[in-house]
Queue: 2 jobs
Job 1
Amino acid sequence: MRIAVAGLGSSGSYLLHLLTRSGFEAFGFDPKKACYYIPCGYAANRHSMTDLLSWTNLDFSTYIESEAGEIIFSGASQREIRFRSRGMVTFDKNKLEADLLKDCKWSRETVKGSYDLLVDATGVSRRYLPKEEDYRMHTVEYLMDLEEKKEFQFRYFPRGSGYFWIFPKGNKYHVGAGSDSIAKIKDSLSPYTPEKIVSRDIRLKPIMHSISDGSVIGIGEAIGTVSPITGEGIVPSMKSAFLLFTAITRSNDLSAIKENYASLVKKEFSRYYILYDLLRSFQANTIQKRRAISYIMAARKDLREFGVDFKISRMLRGFL
Ligand SMILES: Cc1cc2nc3c(=O)[nH]c(=O)nc-3n(C[C@H](O)[C@H](O)[C@H](O)COP(=O)(O)OP(=O)(O)OC[C@H]3O[C@@H](n4cnc5c(N)ncnc54)[C@H](O)[C@@H]3O)c2cc1C
């Protein structure tokens, strides 16, 4: 089976590495320039990343730039809630992606040639899959020095309209904001002076019900593997790549691969539909009390997987 992977960000570079290492005939394509600085906070859970990289010859600890001690959340009340870390770090994502691609066949262009399977790993652009109803927020991120040492922090805007973050990154910081309101982004970033500015949309709607089309199968943000409440997308996107890799190793029949992959994705990411419903109902002020337990359980799992030792009671006190 000849496989093309379109898009070599977190999910595509990982999948291409796994396929190449296992002897598949796989080729990667991504037109982005070598010096392109990827808009992303580069935060992930070190334990999940270590698990994912255990299928490669790379050691995640060599990519870590900063480790979280405490993680500070604040909401509309501005009151700070501090949680312990369960392994949240920032890491050199650009170097990891470059290293994953080292022994792979790939080129800096869009897909050329014909393939039995085309993997759409093109992130928010979802270039090879059908258009679906979507929900995105705009983001702007600064890379910069800060005079005062800061912890990892998330400051949520009122009514689920986005959040502002500060993530330490070695001796620098990523300071950014994502929102459905450009004014809120501008306002929250106005005290800061960037060394570098990047910006792009982030998809917050899971679209895993539209995961394939003919010989195209999607992974990563192309199918919405991004937490609707935290914007975490690196580990989830790499996990989806691993699930597709698993399905490919189990069968060389395209229909069987699609069916197997769809069921693995459904099992892994069903909480994103609950969290998306939470986000949209919170924004519309239509939260149903009968869904409270499922929202809380999904949010708890999500934050813990991102590396936050989330305690429900503390969060409710700060946000209500
Ligand atoms: C500002 C910001 C901060 C974020 N911070 C975090 C964070 O701290 N932690 C976290 O876990 N997640 C974070 N995310 C989310 C995370 O970055 C993404 O969800 C994740 O990287 C998605 O991985 P991916 O492989 O699906 O797509 P991407 O990493 O976006 O890769 C897509 C690739 O496809 C390429 N491409 C596009 N069109 C084509 C085409 N036609 N042909 C070939 N290639 C194409 C692009 O050049 C790109 O390299 C953040 C997102 C944003 C916007």
Job 2
Amino acid sequence: MPKRYFKKSNKTQRIAKARINLLFRLAKEHFREDSKLSDKYVKMARRIAMKHKIRMPSSLKKQFCKSCHRFLVPGANCRVRIHKHRIIYYCIGCKHFMRHPVK
Ligand SMILES: [Zn+2]
């Protein structure tokens, strides 16, 4: 029997996208007071994206660590360098590298 695929409606996906943007905005606002709270917001946003099969926009992908899912702020818990036509994000918490090509 073929695997059933339930497509999520556009309306729920639109609401989920708005939620993700809101959660990232809140994470940015609360980072200075409580960084654990912003990590929690990132966790929630990731869960919403996975549930509704939404791809995270590339601007938001650079704001959290792919390995430990912490909210990254350059200068606070993340190092940003340019090397060989790539932007390299280095998470200080778990020592994970993320490389993004520059066009
Ligand atoms: Zn990390």
